Amino acid sequence: MSFKTQFYLESEVVLAIISKKGHLAKLFLGVIDALRYSEPKRVGRPYLYTTQVIVKLFLVMVYYRLSSVRSLERFVCLNPELAQSCGLNYHVPSYRTLTRRFKRLDEPVLVLVKRILVKLVSKRIIRLAILATDGSLLKAKGKEQPKKRPDIIPADKEAKWGYSLTRGWVWGYKLHLISTVKPCIVPLSWLITTANFQESPEFIGLAKTAVELAKSKLKKIKAFLGDSAYEGKEIYQWSKKEQKIAFICPIKDGKVKHPRAKERKMRLKLFKTKRIKRLFKRRADIERLFSQLKELFLIDPLPVIGLRKVSTYVNLTCLAYLAAVYYNYSNGRGLRQIKSIVA
């Protein structure tokens, strides 16, 4: 029996399946459908499958850590319950349709992300007073390019080498992220670059997104927490002078004369106080978030190739995480009990 004939089931069987929905099916119905994404006007023939259906299909790929679009097509065909929850009746989109629609998912996914974040802030599930920022390397899919052999073609030609103190050299990409801290740690804004990019130049763009979210809900960000890679005049000028937000990070206490020596000395003295040291310990919360994203959704190494596809897939991963947090809250579950949704 072919995959697509799985959907030609008797009505009683379908009803029996739907009545015993698992967590993921309920998440789609209770969270993603409740967001009510409306299709933007477009020229040409209307979509056979709505954008919301396609988003849910790729969320299945993320939650079940499927390695390719072809495996997603097969998996959905073999699981009628999930197909019904995604909004499908008798047919599953083909591999070519899924691949084509994947290229246009960034905008709708980010719209859904913003709507969930608004709900999380409105219900006081997350707090925006203290935010943490950092970057984390993600290994590219497939064979890497040896440093001393540029003639060898890697599996992902767009990836680059990046260095981490904990991991050494990694061939791949970097996830730049701003997150909340305890009691509920979630991603707020993020960006994907190749692994050779530094964290500090990307911070202000990400921080503006977090500031806009806070202002829209009449909230105030009091401080950003970052490591020593973010210590610089531009970030300090933007956060402290323009936004009136403290940026707390370690200051290198060098003996070399510096044009901002007086300012650095004052910030170093402040950083050594007990209150700031205690506050700075919460920066480690973002490391826990990176670890959970990588372990739950297997994004290190990545399952897709190319900067644009990697960016879209990470957007879907963060949407999956946020949707799971909101689902757990709505059902009285532990906020970080995400693995049980698919396990």
Structure in words:
By secondary structure, the protein is α/β, with parallel strands linked by helices. It folds into two domains: 101 residues, no CATH class; 200 residues, no CATH class. 47% of the residues lie in helices and 12% in strands. The chain has 14 helices and six strands. Strands 1, 2, 3, 4, 5 and 6 form a six-stranded mixed beta sheet that branches. A hairpin with a 6-residue loop joins strand 3 and strand 4. Helix 2 packs antiparallel against helix 3 and helix 3 crosses helix 13. The two termini are 27 Å apart.
Average per-residue pLDDT, rounded, comes to 87
Biggest sheet overview:
6 strands, mixed
Number of DSSP strand runs: 6
Low-confidence stretches: 1-19, 255-259
Order of helices and strands: HHHHHHHEEEEHEHEHHHHH
Radius of gyration: 22 Å
Going by helix content, strand content and strand pairing, the class is alpha/beta
Helical residue percent band: 40-55%
What amount of the residues lies in strands? 5-15%
Structural domain count: 2
What is the terminal separation in angstroms? 27 Å
What general form does the structure show? Answer: globular
Per DSSP, the total helix count is: 14
